[in-house]
Design brief:
- The chain has 566 residues and is of the alpha/beta class.
- The chain folds into four domains: 20-188, 3-Layer(aba) Sandwich (Rossmann fold), CATH 3.40.50; 194-255, Helicase, Ruva Protein, domain 3 (Orthogonal Bundle); 260-371, Up-down Bundle (Zinc Finger, Delta Prime, domain 3); 402-559, DnaA, N-terminal domain (GMP Synthetase, Chain A, domain 3).
- It is built from 26 helices and ten strands.
- The protein starts with a strand and ends in a 7-residue tail after the last helix.
């Protein structure tokens, strides 16, 4: 605590506490973590006395850009450098650390973004430094300067006085003019890995005499998302809550973390198609009050861990404790890798959508419930190599008309039935031309419903040699009525999309009909639910489907309803 002050009859003490991000801010280049490519280059530049007139530091927030700029200012003005590092004990180093050095000026680009401020900068930089070797201008958030301000800075930045140096920091390099960047040395700062952040926090906590568990540090590192400053701010908050002993179970609520058990229960419910357990897990998650974006983010991380767990020997790369690594490895054995990839793809797309959704809670729950209806992934190789999965081969095909005729649905008019029976009595036997071998299968005599039914198998066989999928549907059809060159054909015991498939291929079927019966006719397909008996076609003369070429290609065409275009 600081000094005691008296105000009226009450006493209070000034707070001297310093947040961890300021207290443990690096004071030498070697203290900076996660940016070795930058620190090594700058140390070499000091060693060889090759300091440029301007630098641009760019990268995400909280990764050391401004800290590095201050270290450069110290390195340029330190009175007693040690191995090209600032000594932090001379007057210049102390003044720069305390932000009170008159020759090192920090400018906030967001607040001083106009051309007038840059004009003042150009005037002041002409004057020699008061106590230091160089006058250093650190412009933070430089991308906020106006276009006019950037233009006013160009000439001074390219040819400053010998004692002038510029260091500019920005999180949005794309907003800076190329003319400014080309006059400076650019350094791209990277996000800091979770491992480096965790190691740094371990060092700080050890120095602060605070106990911790590795799972808590891993959770804080992941939540920091590559920012050391964010990690130390979260750590400050955790210490205020947990005191001198940090435990994952205690801090999960303040961090807004969902326990791993809930994620395991969630994916287990999806794997087992257990809707009741899934709803219970969703209810538990909702009671925690965790932001939905964090829920989806945690679920994506969980699916990623499971996916890595499917790779033998890769569990050590998971950012969890050894017990959880073993648990992920054991759980991953019950999952197909392709299923995990499909789930991960769905929720990766869902995360940005939640922010725009009117009812994000319902959107998340509906997507999770939809996972229960997803089938397991099956490789194409297994489908092609397993003939039992082909529905076309699951039932023998036979053609028996008499039993079906007796069960004509009531939806067909009685007049059609009467006319049909009269036509059947007068129907002449089929006569086939034998003089022309190309037309030996074509019917030239009177065309009636009985003739069409008796020879319907020829149409199925002919179309089967062209497009197997259509023939498979036609095996479940039955000619019902013939009126004025229009043939009504019932589709029996088939899904609705089969009727659409026939409609899309109507021209092919009508052309095949014309080839078989040598007459043009219009065919109308009707979805019929009144016929419950299985239709069986007997095709004694059917040679079967003729396929040519690669047998694997033929198999793909058959299973996936394909056709060769060329």
């Amino acid at each position: 605590m600081g000094q005691t002050m008296v105000h009226g009859h009450r006493k209070f003490e000034t707070m001297s506490y310093q947040v961890l991000s300021l207290k443990w801010r690096p004071q030498t280049f070697n203290d900076v973590v996660g940016q070795d490519h930058v620190t090594q280059t700058l140390i070499n530049a000091f060693a060889k006395d090759r300091i440029a007139q301007g630098y641009v530091f760019t990268g995400p927030r909280g990764i050391g850009k401004t800290t590095m700029a201050r270290l450069m200012a110290k390195g340029l003005n330190c009175q007693n450098p040690v191995d090209h590092e600032p000594c932090n004990s001379c007057s210049n180093c102390r003044e720069i650390t305390e932000s009170r050095n008159m020759d090192v000026l920090e400018i906030d680009g967001a607040s001083n973004r106009g051309i007038d401020e840059i004009r003042n900068l150009r005037k002041n930089i002409k004057f020699s430094p008061m106590n230091a070797n160089y006058k250093v201008y650190i412009i933070d958030e430089v991308h906020m300067l106006t276009t006019q301000a950037f233009n006013a800075l160009l000439r001074t930045l390219e040819e400053p006085p010998p004692h002038g140096k510029f260091i500019m920091c920005t999180t949005d390099i794309h907003k800076m003019p190329a003319t400014i960047i080309s006059r400076c040395q650019r350094f791209d700062f990277n996000r800091i890995s979770s491992t480096i952040i965790s190691d740094r926090m371990k060092y700080i906590l050890d120095e602060e005499k605070i106990t911790y568990d590795s799972e808590s540090l891993s959770a804080i590192s992941r939540k920091a998302d590559g920012s050391m400053r964010d990690a130390l701010s979260i750590l400050d908050q955790v210490i205020s809550f947990a005191g001198e002993k940090i435990e994952f179970e205690k801090i999960s609520s303040i961090l807004g973390l969902i326990p791993y058990d809930l994620y395991f229960n969630l994916t287990t419910a999806i794997k087992e198609k257990n809707a009741e357990n899934l709803v219970q897990v969703l209810k538990h998650i909702r009671s925690l009050g965790t932001p939905l974006e964090d829920v989806v983010n945690g679920l994506n991380q969980h699916l990623r861990n499971l996916l890595i767990g499917t790779v033998q020997g890769a569990e050590s790369s998971l950012d969890v404790n050894p017990e959880l690594q073993e648990r992920y490895t054991a759980e991953a054995k019950h999952w197909e890798r392709r299923d995990l990839m499909r789930f991960s793809q769905v929720f990766s797309k869902l995360e940005p959508t939640l922010r725009r959704a009117a009812q994000p809670q319902i959107l998340l729950e509906m997507n999770l419930l939809k996972m229960l209806e997803m089938d397991l992934s099956v490789s194409i190789e297994n489908i092609l190599n397993n003939p039992t999965q082909n529905i076309a081969e699951s039932k023998p095909v036979k053609y028996e008309i008499p039993e079906v005729i007796e069960k004509i649905p009531t939806s067909v008019s009685s007049q059609n039935i009467t006319d049909d029976k009269k036509v059947e009595k007068k129907a002449a036997p089929i006569k086939k031309e034998t003089t022309n071998p190309e037309k030996k299968n074509k019917v030239k005599e009177v065309l009636d419903l009985k003739t069409i039914k008796t020879n319907w198998h020829q149409i199925i066989t002919k179309i089967g040699s062209i497009k197997t999928s259509i023939a498979m549907v036609l095996e479940h059809t039955l000619p019902m009525a013939l009126n004025n060159k229009k043939l009504d054909v019932a589709v029996v015991d088939q899904p609705r999309f089969s009727l659409d498939r026939l409609e899309r291929n109507r021209q092919l079927i009508e052309n095949t009909f014309a080839e078989i019966f040598d007459q043009n006719i219009r065919i109308a397909f009707l979805f019929n639910e009144d016929i419950h008996e299985e239709i069986k076609h007997e095709m004694p003369d059917a040679p079967g489907i003729i396929t040519k070429g690669d047998p694997i290609v033929n198999r793909i065409i058959e299973v996936f309803d394909g056709e060769i275009l060329r």
